[in-house]
Specification:
Blueprint: H1 12-29, H2 35-50, E1 57-63, E2 69-76, E3 83-85, H3 88-92, E4 98-101, E5 107-114, E6 120-128, H4 136-150
Antiparallel strand pairs: 1-2, 1-6, 2-3, 4-5, 5-6
C-alpha cells in the first residue's frame, strides 16, 4: 500500500489499526459495553487519528423508530444536519456501505451498523474536503470497527 502524503506519510491502514487497538484496549478495561459509549469512543478515536488532516466530519446517525429518517448521534468536530432523509447516498447506507463524492468537491463514506439479523439501525458517516479521500481500504476498516456494535442491544431512540 502506498503512503499517503496527505496523512503525514503514514498509510491509512496503520492509522486504522492504531485506532482499533486503542478501542479494543479501552473496551477490555470496561467489560460492560454500552452502545452509546462505544459509538462515542469510535467517533472520538477516528477523529483523533484522522481529523486533523483527512476527515472534515465524522459521526453516527441512528435510524428513527419509525424507520423514516436518520437522526444525528455523536459527531466531531461540530453538529451536522439533525436529521437526514433515507434517500440519497447517506440513506442508501442502510443497504450497504457507500463511497461517493461529497458536497463542494469533497468525498464521503457511509457505513451501516448492522444488528445480528443484518439489518441497519445506524450508520457511521465520514466526510473529507479532499476528492477521492476514501476507498475500499477505508470501507473494510470501518466495517471491521463497527462489528463490535452488532452484538449489543440498540441504544435508546434518537
Amino acid at each position: 500500500m502506498m503512503e499517503d502524503p496527505e496523512t503525514g506519510g503514514r498509510p491509512a491502514r496503520a492509522r486504522y489499526d492504531k485506532a482499533r487497538h486503542h478501542l479494543e484496549r479501552r473496551w477490555r478495561r470496561r467489560p460492560e459495553r454500552h452502545c452509546d459509549r462505544m459509538m462515542r469512543a469510535i467517533v472520538d478515536e477516528l477523529w483523533a487519528q484522522f481529523g486533523a488532516d483527512t476527515y472534515s466530519w465524522c459521526g453516527f446517525y441512528l435510524l428513527s423508530p419509525d424507520g423514516s429518517r436518520w437522526a444525528q448521534g455523536h459527531c466531531q468536530p461540530r453538529p451536522g444536519p439533525e436529521t437526514l432523509p433515507l434517500d440519497g447516498p447517506r440513506g442508501r447506507a442502510a443497504q450497504g456501505s457507500v463511497i461517493d463524492a461529497g458536497e463542494g468537491g469533497g468525498s464521503r463514506i457511509c457505513v451501516p451498523v448492522l444488528d445480528q439479523r443484518g439489518e441497519a439501525w445506524a450508520m457511521l458517516a465520514v466526510e473529507s474536503a479532499r476528492a477521492g479521500a476514501f476507498n475500499e481500504v477505508d470501507r473494510r476498516w470501518l466495517e471491521r470497527m463497527l462489528k463490535a456494535l452488532a452484538q449489543l442491544p440498540r441504544p435508546s431512540s434518537p
